[in-house]
Structure formats: C-alpha cells, structure tokens
Here is the input.
Amino acid sequence: MRINLVFSSLLLCFLFGTAFADEASLKKAIQANFPGEKIESLKKTPYLGLYEVVVGGELFYTDEKASYLFFGHVVDPQTKQSLTSDRLQQIKDARRISVDSLPLELAIKAVKGNGKRKLVVFSDPNCPYCKRLEKELANVNDVTVYTLLYPVLNGSVPTATSIWCSPDRLKAWEDFMLKDIAPTGKDCETPIGKLLQAGQKNGISGTPTLIFADGSIAPGLMAAEAIEKKLGVSSAK
Here is the structure.
C-alpha cells in the first residue's frame, strides 16, 4: 500500500493512543499500518517533538506516542520555506539503486564510442519524453546505455513486445524512437513482466528514469550536457 495523498493543509489522522518508550517500538507500531512497505527512515525532528517517517518515498510525521499521523508541510514562518520540501529533496538526492542489482541482461544494449561509462534507462516506447531523451543520448559518447523496456503507458506493451521480438532489437528501438519507424517484430516470449517487476521493486514511477554508475537516479528528461556532466561525476566514484 503506497501513500499517494496530496494535502493543501496539515491533515490529522487519528490512529491509536498507546505510548511507546523507544523508536524501535514506535517503528513497529507504524509498520503495522503499512504492511508490505518498508519504513525507509524514522528520526526525531527538532520541532514540536515530532518524528519524521519516510515510507515508500513519502514523508509524514507522528508524535512520540504514535497517536496521530500528520501529512503535510512544516513551514518556517520566518523564511516561508517548507522544511518538508527541503527534506524530500535531500531524500531524493540521497536515493540510490545499485546498477548491478538490475537485470541488465534483459536490456537493449547500445555501445557508444569506447563504452567505458555506464548508464541505465527505464524507458517506455510511447513516452514522448523518452523519445526526446534518445535524441539527447545520440549526442553522448563513450558510454554503454542499457535500455530497460518499461511500458507503463496505456498501449505500450504491444509496441515494446514488437521491438523486443525484432531481429535487431537495438535498430528497432532506435528506428522507432528517433525515426518513428514502426517495429515489425512478431509476438515472442519477452522479459517485459520481469522488467516491470524490477521497476516497481525499485520504485520507478515514471519514464524516462536514468540510473548512473554510482546508483544515483535522475527521473525525467535530461539534456546531453547534463548527462555528460553526471556521467563524469558518477564514473569517477
């Protein structure tokens, strides 16, 4: 169960009133409300005695007795800055996915130049931003790009299937993404189900999503210059 709630103001959700003596007990109590989800972070904040909780990439707060869950933004009235937004950005920047944990053997592999640098892309063939990304990647050299088919948009599975079942998958992919040439591959056994599971397991919620050698994640379209800069930083680590 994911927390997909958007609130314009602070929302109080009454849950339970048992007092807990330590963070371990508090974590256990919170976990009971989110079966199947991992509590990524639980830490005490410097304001109002609240605890910050991160579950499924979403941030909320609770009191030390776990009596309530608070969804919304904590704002500094002096600076008018959302402390919650700042923390969400920190969490986003710190998030990592190990490239070695991904099913690269199921990727459409493109070696550009010496191919020494590594980049993984979750991409949907019918995603317009993915097509624009391919044009940017055409201007990036000395990198091996592993494209993981991630057809999450309506109607994308047949297109992804046809690309995968083509005699030359890389050519079919590039022809479709760069030249709008429809793939001609017939139905065959594909790893699309496994790729969708891998994406969901790693919290990939949209396309394109780029993952660099150091595990850093960049959701959305990136310009070639930004990709080059990021490749340089990630490959140096």
About this structure: The radius of gyration is 21 Å.
